[in-house]
Amino acid sequence: MPRTTLQRTVLLLVLMISLPGAPASSVHAQETPPIWSRVAGIPADVTLVDVVMPGPEVAWAVGSQEQEPRGVVYRLSLAQNRWHVTRDATFDQPLSGVAALDAERVVVVGGAGLIARRNAGGAWAREDPGIANLWLSAVQLFDDGRAGWAMGAVDGTERDRAVALRLNDGRWTEAGIEDPGSDSYVEAIHFFAPGVGWAVGSHIWYLRGNEWRLDRQLEFCPGDMCRQQLSGVRAIDAERAWLVGTRRFMCMFCPDQIVMGRHDASGWHDAFPEGTAAVLPPLAPGHYDSAMLSGLTFVGADDGLAVGWRRYQDEQFNFVIQAFALRYSRGAWSYETLGERIVPSHVAMADATHALVVGYGGLLLSYGYGEQGAPPEAPAGNPARPVPDPGLPEVRYFAPTGHTLRGAFRGYWEANGGLERFGYPLTEEFTTTRAEDGRTYTVQYFERARFEAHPEHQGTRYAVLLGLLGRELTAGRADEAPFRPIGPPRTADTCYFPETGHRIAPEFAGFWREKGGLPIFGYPISEPFTEINAADGQPYLVQYFERSRFEYHPGAGGPPGKVMLGLLGSEYLRRSGIGGQ
Does pTM top 0.70 for this prediction? Predict the structure, then answer.
C-alpha cells in the first residue's frame, strides 16, 4: 500500500480516537437558498474517497467497507428531488478513483492495480495493467472512454514510485513519468485536454503530449521537518489551474496547515502567501488548530469548491473536528462549515449550485437539492400499513410484517443485535413531532424498540438512538412500589444507579452489560417485580429500563433463565392507534 493511503488511514484512526428520476427543471428550481444536507443510505462502516457527477441527477461514488475490507461502488440517482443510493458493485480491493462518461458507463480504480469498467448494460469487467504492487488513486477518460489516464504509485521495498498508465485502443500501458529521486505518488489528476493535464500528490507533474514532467516552481515544504500532501487539482484551461493539499509538520504537536496553489501564464503561485488566516476564521484563538484540504473541484473558471476539516481545541481545551468548504466565486474564496465530527474526502459539482461531498463514516452531503433528511412519505398516510417489496439491494424487506429497513436504521439494526434484540419492523420510517421539545424526528417502530434519527450527531455512534419507550409506557406509575427509588445501598454496588435510584437485578445485570448497556437500554427505572405479560397472559419477572423492559423467561428454551426484551414497540403502537389499518 503506498504511503499516501496508509497515512490517510492512520489519520482517520487518530481522528476517531480523539472524538468523544426528477425532471431537470425540478433540480434547478430553488425556492430557498441552497443548503448542505446529509443524505442517508451509505453504511457507517463505509469510507467514500471519490465522487463524480456526470450530471445534476446522477453521481457515482467509490471507497471501501471495513467489514471485509472490500471496495464498493455506489450509484446515486435523483428522483422526486431526493437522492436514492444503490450499491452497484463490490470488489476484493479498496477503490480510490472513479470516472464516469454518463449515467451508465463508469471506470473505477484501486488497490492491487484494480481497474474495472462498467458498460451501458450494467456489467462490470476488469482490465489488468499487469504491474505488481500497484495502487491506483485517480482516473480520467477521453474519446468516449477509448482513451484516458490512471495514476497512482508502486509500493517499493525502499521507496514508493509514482506511476502513470495510459489507455489507448483499449489497452493500459505504463507511460514515462519523471522520478524526483525520493518517495513519490500521485493522488489526483485532471486534464484540460487529452495531452494537457496536471497530476499532484507528493509532487507536481505536468503533461505535455505523452510525457509527465516534474514542475518544481511551487513547493510548500522546502525543509526536512515538513511534508506536502497535495490532494486535489483542476485544470481550467491550457494555462490556468488550481491545486490544494496540506503542509504536514513532522512533530507531534505541530498543527497541519492547508495549502492552495494557482497556475497562470507565469507559473505556479501560492494562493495564500500571507497565510491562511484570511480564509480560515479563528475558532479558538491561541489554541491548537490543525487544518487539511482533501478535495477540489471546479465547473468553469469561476465556480469551485474545496473541502477539508479542522481539528482544534475549544475554549475548554476539548478537541473538536469540524468539516468545512472553501467556495470560489467572483474571484475570491469564502469559508463555510459543513458540520462537526465529520471528515470529508472529496467533492464534485454538477454546476454552480449543485454539489456532493463524500467522506468517512458513510458521509454523503448534498448541496442545492433541499433538505434530504426526511424519509419518504408513509403509505397512504399510515406508516404501519404493509408495503410491497421494493426489490432494491440497499433495502431489506421483511415479509412477515410487510415493512422495509434501509439507510442508517438498517445499519444500526444489523450492528446492534438485529432480530433477536429489536424484532421485526412494524412501520416504515416516518416523521413525528415530539411534545416534550416540539422538534420533528424521523422514527421507525420495531416489535421491541423505536429507532430515532438524530442528524445533529451524524458521524458518531449516536446518530441513531432508541426511543424512551420504557419511560413512556410506564408514565403514571411512579407511585407504584417497584417504580419508587430505593435510595443508595449501604455498601458499594456497581449495579446501583443514583441517576434513577434503582439497581439492576442479578438476573438481568449480565445481559444489560453484555448486550449494550446504557447506550442501548438506558438506566433502570424500576426494581424487579412480577408482571402479567400482555402477549401471552403469563407472569414473568420483569424490570423496566428507560428504553426497554427485561423479562426473565425460565422456560423459553436454551439455558434456564433466558432474558428476553419486552415487546414495547408493539404495545406502544396498540396504545397510540398507529397500528390500525
Answer: no
Q: What is the pLDDT of residue 576?
A: 76
The single-letter code of the amino acid at 539 is P
Query: Which pLDDT score, from 0 to 100, does residue 40 have?
Result: 85
Cβ neighbours of 225 (radius 10 Å): 10
Task: Quote the strand ranges of 56-133, DSSP E.
Answer: 58-65, 70-79, 82-91, 95-100, 106-110, 115-118, 124-126
Answer whether 65's CB lies under 8 Å from 93's CB. no
1-10+49-209 to CATH, choices 3.90.226.10, 3.40.50.300, 3.30.1050.10, 2.120.10.80 = 2.120.10.80
- 377-418 residue pLDDT tens: 444 468 898 988 888 777 899 999 999 999 889 988 998 889
Whether residue 165 contacts residue 177, with contact meaning beta carbons closer than 8 Å, is answered with no
Q: Label residue 10 by pLDDT band (50, 70, 90).
A: very low
CA distance 346 to 306: 8
Backbone torsion region of residue 418, taken as left when φ is above 0, otherwise alpha when ψ lies between -120 and 50, otherwise beta: left
Which of the two residues, 459 and 269, has the higher pLDDT score?
A: 269
User: Count of residues for the chain?
Assistant: 581
Burial 27-64 (b: 16+ CB within 10 A, else e): beeeeeeeebbbbbbbbbebbbbbbbbbebbbbbbbbb
User: Which residue type does 236 have?
Assistant: I
Half-sphere exposure of 411 (CA within 13 A, CB side): 22
Would you kindly state where each structural domain of the chain is located, as residue ranges? 1-10+49-209, 227-273+287-365, 376-467, 471-570+577-581
